Amino acid sequence: MRSVYGNGDHPRCPAPFNLAAYALSFADTTPNKPALIMVNSESVTETWSYGALRNAVLSTAYGFLKKGLCPRDRILLRLGNTVEFPIAYLAAIAVDLVPVPISSQLTEREIAAVISTIQPKAILTSGETESPVQTNAVRISHEELKEMQKEPLADFVFGDPNRLAFIVFTSGTSAHPHAVMHAHRAIWARQMMVRDWYQLSASDRLLHAGAFNWTFTLGTGLLDPWAIGATALVPEANSSLDSIPYLLEKYDVSLFAAAPGVYRSILKNMSKLNAPSLRHGLCAGEKLQPSVSKAWKQATGTKIYEAFGMTECSTFISHNPRLNCAENTVGKPQTGRSVAILPIEGGDQPVGLGEIGIISIATNDSGMMLGYLEGSKSGADVYRGNWFLTGDIGKMESDGTITYLGRNDDMMNAGGFRVSPIEVEAVLLTHHDVLSVAVSQIEVKNDVTIIAAFFLAKCDLKEDELKIFASTRLARYKQPRAYFQLESLPYGPNGKLLRRNLKQLLGPSNDQA
User: Fold this and answer.
1) What is the pTM of this model?
2) Measured at the alpha carbon of residue 410, what is the angle toward residues 404 and 414, in degrees to the nearest 5?
């Protein structure tokens, strides 16, 4: 039996089509229902109904056209976490402009690289995100965006669902982020995750803890709730993660979405949360540690359902309340997807069940990217036959459940054996004093590498104690040779563990071989 699951039979996107019109279609039937609520621990700061939101989107679209922007022109969105971000994003898509959302935290050098890659015709900025990078692009300020909401309404532009809608950059699991082009049909494909991950309905109130520029927030936090007629809640700019438990209780949140790092941060200071309306949590972005999932269940009485995906195709493997998958898996391919495990060494025929390989998805998936922007990355190394390779390692069981073992470039080599950092971390986290852990292969001398564990603990833990603990639970070649107790682990702005930064925490010389 081969490691392949699903038949990729999700209905094709209808034509003509417009992503923004689809996302805001409930403005016709429920114009006065809250679509977006910006909240903080003190009060509601802004509430946008479906009707008001669609009008703001179409008025802003008119403003863009008035600036002389033309279809397929690229617009760089470098805004803070305000409602003008999603309004501008959908406004561009509404009239066939191409938004490119990026983080407001990027440095001048990083912004210069982005501008060089996408050659934007306009750059949207707020006061705190202004940049001295020189470009001929039209500058549109945050205040101008607000004024555009007074303009007449533009019309949605409908067309081929396969045409370019937006560009997003990969989130940094590689050294150089790549520009990924997505079609209007991308939102149509998200119906599969609405059904087989969120269990989302029009009555839900979904709170997302991420920033608007992250595709996880734009999709899961905004577009998916709007496309089904639900209400999205987002903490206002500069809100602390410490306020999340209060928001869950005060605003009758039924679904909560965040990266695993956010859940860890919340649970660090709280063992009990009062969230009476919460059905379950959702997480993506990196592997959810079982200890975090267990602690959340104890604190709230609800489960966290994990999903696996990538910038090139969003999430396509997930847990949901109907499945009974083991905690160490990332769930099953969503209904309508076709997923396989391909050999690491090469070839387009899936490996056997239970064998380790590269998690791959069919290239004809309706959520698959159009490709990488020219000059950003060659796609030659990510396609094999009819499959797209994610670069992530895993294995599949006979019922389709998939165990995630880490990035291919994070996999460690010990005496010729491939070792997953995820597997080693899961074992070390069962130690009663270990709070968090990251495992990586580090070079300690020229051409000499070892497996090392970087950890946070409740007390001062001796290396010998952890070595003895690992020796009874891991094969010899999987056991870390060195342990480093830290005050914190390196995470990116969206809560992803930055494994490549671990060695930097040790300083210039650490001979542990």
Assistant:
1) 0.86
2) 100
